[in-house]
């Protein structure tokens, strides 16, 4: 026992009690997320790769996409808005870096020329599925849709580049994440390690993927490197369906954390649907008063009536009992007529009356519950509930805000898709097209394979990506608002152009220039050009000199208190000046 000590107020305390108190605080009062003991529940460690069952998540996610209308509806709605017919590039080489010593007009002319060449060449290539796709099934837009769909469902997958021997251009293959698995017989090279089919180097960078392949009953593994050992160019890369932790190797299906909600919601829907069907099969039943006679009855199928008018009466029942006691056979009562609209039941036994079956199914609260669950799932994926279920019954302000929120999400996803899928494909096409002399880009090949000239290579390969430009809720109101903001100088033409068309201002002007030249060649003058010309003629009249106007106003103010003769002379002078201008 530790000796007692005196506290300032004179009370005795034992040191072991004080230490025990401090220790108890240190152990029990450390905040770990619990409001009370075990209120949070078990703690899972997802930083550890073994803490996530990727295999089960992928298969459950794909199963629900096939079986569950909520899953297929939400994902298909996402794809139509995110990808639509494809996220399309517009080549925008940076003239100031590529041709720094030329004057502005000349280098902008060259930038426009090569932009058109690269953009049109890629679009022709992207639209030809025989050239673009390794399996000769998808155009570039359809390929993006497939990659996005399967990466959402499976969490990830890889794109593999190959060379089309017929054209000499690259073609692309998509491999679902389910086929990326660790080869049990593979020994990593150079100190690398393999996690869930992904081979990593000492710096946790992807260096290869191990793909399981099937040939009949034979199973084999193929190692697909990220960078070609001979070419030094990118051969494959992984595409993720959603966000992930930085050090996580594989991706989680986008709906992974709401799979149980989606499954139970579908069960609830099916149960209510079955209840409604059963309810319709049993439209009514016969109830009896407690003191009324109890008589044997068969089930009246199809809502018919008895063959004999006295069937079921007490006399008929007694006769049936007597026949049975005498060992005679009794014919069952048959249905001879189906219920028709307006049919009236009659000759019920005393104390019997027809009652309707329970009409409270499906559950009257089902609709609100379904909306709440779908809204929760859609909101967790960044989709406004109105857009997820395609029910637009709000006012203009609410609908516009929902559209704006989803536009933010779509802009980010356009950026992600262009980075994860499009930009590498575009760059590899331009490089290969230049190598086989399909495109003549002076000076480009000198920097394409020189790491020291990365900025010049990036300036050649820069492009803007545009997806679906969602229509405005009220385009006239927004156009007027943008016109006002432009006049105030608080937005740029480039911002407005991207908002309404998805293209940058320079790309729009380049296209307009091409269209103007084409219309001029064919002698076509659109009506809006005529109206603009008339307004420009009116607005371009030379304004009177401000100093002259000020001087004339001073004379008028002075003469306002002068003699009538001077005022008449001044009016005559102004009249003569006006007639001279006319």
What does this entry look like structurally?
The chain has 582 residues and is α+β, with helices and mostly antiparallel strands. 49% of the residues lie in helices and 12% in strands. The chain has 20 helices and 13 strands. It has helices spanning 15-28, 54-67, 69-82, 95-98, 104-127, 129-132, 140-154, 259-281, 314-325, 366-380, 385-389, 396-435, 444-448, 454-461, 475-488, 493-501, 505-522, 527-539, 546-559, 564-581; strands at 4-6, 12-14, 88-91, 156-163, 170-176, 193-195, 198-200, 206-215, 218-225, 236-240, 284-288, 352-356, 463-466. Strands 6-7-8-9 form a four-stranded antiparallel sheet, with no helix packed on it. Strand 4 (156-163) and strand 5 (170-176) form a beta hairpin. Helix 2 packs across helix 3 (69-82) and helix 8 packs antiparallel against helix 10 (366-380). It is extended, with a radius of gyration of 40 Å.
Number of separate strands:
13
Low-confidence stretches: 1-11, 296-307
What is the averaged pLDDT score? Answer: 80
Helical region count?
20
- Major β-sheet annotation: 4 strands, antiparallel
Radius of gyration: 40 Å
- Which strands sit side by side, in order, in the main sheet? 6-7-8-9
| C-alpha geometry | extended
């Amino acid at each position: 026992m530790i000796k007692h000590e005196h506290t300032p107020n004179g009370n005795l305390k034992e040191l072991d009690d004080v230490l025990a108190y401090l220790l108890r605080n240190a152990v029990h009062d450390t905040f770990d997320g619990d409001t009370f003991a075990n209120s949070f529940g078990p703690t899972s460690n997802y930083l550890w790769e073994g803490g996530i069952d990727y295999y089960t998540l992928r298969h459950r996610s794909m199963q629900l996409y096939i079986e569950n209308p909520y899953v297929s509806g939400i994902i298909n709605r996402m794809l139509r808005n995110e990808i639509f017919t494809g996220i399309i590039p517009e080549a925008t080489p940076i003239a100031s870096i590529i041709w720094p010593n030329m004057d502005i007009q000349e280098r902008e002319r060259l930038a426009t020329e090569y932009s058109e060449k690269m953009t049109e060449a890629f679009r022709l290539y992207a639209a030809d599925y025989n050239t673009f796709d390794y399996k000769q099934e998808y155009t570039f837009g359809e390929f993006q849709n497939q990659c996005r769909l399967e990466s959402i469902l499976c969490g990830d997958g890889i794109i593999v580049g190959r060379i089309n021997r017929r054209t000499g251009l690259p073609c692309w293959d998509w491999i679902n994440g389910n086929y990326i698995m660790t080869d049990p017989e593979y020994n990593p090279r150079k100190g690398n390690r393999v996690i869930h089919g992904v081979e990593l180097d000492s710096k946790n960078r992807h260096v290869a993927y191990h793909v399981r392949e099937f040939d009949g009953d034979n199973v084999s593994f193929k190692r697909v490197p990220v960078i070609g050992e001979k070419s030094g160019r990118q051969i494959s890369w992984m595409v993720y369906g959603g966000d992930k932790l930085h050090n996580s190797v594989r991706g989680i299906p986008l709906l992974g954390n709401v799979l149980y909600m989606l499954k139970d919601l579908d069960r609830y829907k099916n149960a209510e649907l079955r209840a409604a069907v059963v309810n319709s099969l049993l439209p009514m039943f016969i109830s009896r008063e407690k003191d009324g006679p109890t008589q044997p009855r068969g089930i009246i199928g199809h809502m018919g009536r008895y063959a004999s008018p006295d069937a079921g009466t007490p006399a008929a029942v007694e006769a049936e009992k007597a026949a049975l006691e005498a060992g005679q056979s009794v014919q069952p009562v048959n249905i001879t007529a189906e219920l028709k609209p307006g049919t009236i039941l009659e000759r019920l036994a005393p104390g019997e009356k027809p009652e309707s079956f329970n009409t409270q199914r499906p559950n009257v609260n089902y609709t609100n519950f379904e909306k709440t669950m779908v809204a929760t799932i859609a909101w967790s994926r960044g989709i406004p509930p109105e857009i997820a279920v395609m029910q637009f019954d709000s006012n203009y302000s609410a609908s516009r805000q929902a559209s704006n929120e989803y536009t933010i999400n779509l802009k980010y996803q356009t950026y992600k898709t262009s980075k994860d899928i499009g930009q590498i494909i575009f760059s590899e096409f331009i490089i290969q097209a230049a190598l086989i002399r399909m495109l003549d880009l002076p000076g480009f090949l000198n920097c394409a394979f020189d790491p020291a000239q990365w900025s010049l290579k990036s300036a050649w390969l820069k492009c803007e990506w545009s997806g679906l430009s969602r229509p405005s809720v009220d385009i006239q109101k927004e156009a007027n608002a943008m016109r006002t903001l432009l006049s105030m100088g608080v937005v740029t033409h480039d911002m407005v152009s991207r908002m309404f068309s998805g293209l940058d201002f320079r790309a729009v002007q380049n296209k307009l220039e091409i269209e103007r030249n084409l219309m001029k060649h064919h002698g076509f003058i659109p009506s809006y050009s005529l109206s603009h010309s008339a307004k420009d003629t009116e607005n371009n009249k030379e304004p009177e000199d401000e100093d002259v106007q000020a001087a004339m106003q001073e004379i008028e103010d002075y003469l306002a208190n002068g003699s009538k003769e001077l005022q008449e002379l001044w009016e005559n002078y102004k009249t003569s000046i006006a007639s001279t201008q006319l």
